[in-house]
Amino acid sequence: MLSPSIWNRKSKYMIFQSLMKIIQRIVKLMPTSFVTFFKRNPKLTALYSRTLVKSGLFYGRPSTKKLEILTKELLKKQSEQFRHNQNKTSNDFSLLIITSSSDIDACLEMLLDLDSPSFSKILFFCATEDVEKVIQRIYSSPITNLKWRVSSRLDGLVDEEPILVINNDDVLVSSFTTLISKLTSSSVDVCYFDRAFYSTNGEFVEPELYPDWNADLQLSTSYIRTCVYFAKGKYLLSSFDLEPSKHFVANWMINNFFEQCSRQVHHIPIIGVFSPPEPSESLKMTRELLKYLLAQANIEDVTERGYIRDIQWKIENEPLVSLIIPTYNGKDLVEQCVKSILSLTTYKHFEIVLVDNNSDDKEAIAYFHELSNHEKIKVLRYPHPFNYSAINNFAVSKCNGEIIGLINNDIKVITPQWLEHLLCIVLREDVGSVGAKLLYPDNRVQHAGVVLGYGGGAGHAHKFFPRNHDGYLSRLAATNNFSAVTAACLLVKREDYLKVGGLNELDLTVAFNDVDFCLRLLEIRERNVYCAIAELYHFESISRGADDTKEKSERFQKELQYLRSTWRTYIEHDPAYNQCLTLKRENFAIVDSSEYIHAISELTPQ
């Protein structure tokens, strides 16, 4: 039973949250001119934001009922797009269905219900023992008026013709095949789509709206499992033995991760199929694929967290990591940060490079002098005006590490293996930078990857979510790719840091320099990775403070404008996000009518 004092605290919190909900509604009803006027006051805006954060309202996702309404609206708009583009092309393609004899009846019923399908023939891929039974069931159904073939051998089933692959229990969205016909005349090699779910018990299941090709998310969750288009059926022939099971598409995609083939994987944010809800278990890789991966990494299935694999890449050597920590005074913060690194970090081949930027506090200066005598710590002086980018560029020129770690002075280590977790990822040739999961002291998420477009600039995915929440598509709990990660805790290879010219010290002295840096890494075709299992506390901007003065606000707006003008393409379409997810809040909710702006002609690659 709860004590009266706990009840009182809970009641006060509920009253506070209710009051903030009322204030939110009032703000939404206010004329735009009034809202703009208040936004010009940085202190008032900062107060309102901080109060909303304390109320917990930033975390909340739409209710199930609201999500169901938004999903229906989304499907309606996409259906209108299909009708608008119908009959514009008539190119043929094959439909490949991964099936078995025990579950083909529903599949045949789905095929009969399709409106004017565009595919030329249907291919059934099943186990050897199921071939005859599948053939018999097809013969006894009205589907015989369409061309079809059944085989247990993929190489004898597919050819040069374009092909769409689905599972036997998928239901194709009405008129979706008209979009596939449009793709056959494009240069796209491989393309996947979003999917919704049909309920088996009457309960609504939220659709899965995917990012563009996210190699690490596929490796950790197998998020692409069905509804994939191939410009040539022969592309399906893999170097690994892919069996006719529900794991077929997922494993082909994982295989693509290792092959690094010239065929790029595209994504169109259109719902192509309805699938049945799936159990919370990881899809199994083929034995060959798993064996190949185990030669490079250690894998653990985290089944209690859903579709998540914890993959730890093997570190062949132990490169020196230079952890750069800029600071102005902040003795207590630096002491907490340095002590946590030295006492908890299990990876030992690192150096700490503390950069003193004009500190004038005697206790801080004395402490920094004391640190300079430590064998693992180098203290540098940067006697110039504060410029976060310039400070780090200066430190990189003075340190010795093969790997550069950008660390804020308000970071506290809580995962002893944090450096191994980050290091084993950044050492991969295909990775530019890697960032950690950063938490506020109350265990809510501060950083779990950066999404372009939030606030017209950039923001943190899943901000204010609880620490142990899986997040949307398990992206909070699973290691995956984002367009950018925060430099509050970021690792990058020295050669890559220098290759893209380091942080931008001319245009981005304080804000968005990490986002700009990561996007430049992305431009040289290197992935940026958010590592979900490397967790640290981040006492955000304690030393720098909030942008609540006129001077700071003007500087922030100038840097925001630079980001918008330089990286407009990514802000308009972040490849690590989905265009049908909202940019109004960091909660991965479905867009409402005011945000839905797409057209099929714009979504289809040429």
Distinctive features:
10-stranded mixed β-sheet, alpha/beta, 19 helices, Spore Coat Polysaccharide Biosynthesis Protein SpsA, Chain A, 8-stranded mixed β-sheet, disordered N terminus, 3 domains, 35% helix, globular, 606 residues
| Largest sheet composition | 10 strands, mixed
Low-confidence stretches: 1-7
Q: How many strand units?
A: 22
> How does the overall form come out from the CA principal axes?
globular
CATH architecture of the largest domain: Alpha-Beta Complex
CATH superfamily of the largest domain: Spore Coat Polysaccharide Biosynthesis Protein SpsA, Chain A
Q: End-to-end distance, in Å? A: 64 Å
The domain tally reads: 3
Percent helix: 25-40%
Which percent band covers the strand fraction?
A: 15-25%
CATH class of the largest domain: Alpha Beta
Briefly note the structural class of the backbone: alpha/beta
Q: Could you tell me the radius of gyration in angstroms?
A: 26 Å
Report on the architecture of this protein.
The protein is an alpha/beta fold. 35% of the residues lie in helices and 19% in strands. Strands 11, 12, 13, 14, 15, 16, 17, 20, 21 and 22 form a ten-stranded mixed sheet that branches. An eight-stranded mixed sheet has the order 3-2-1-4-7-6-8-5.
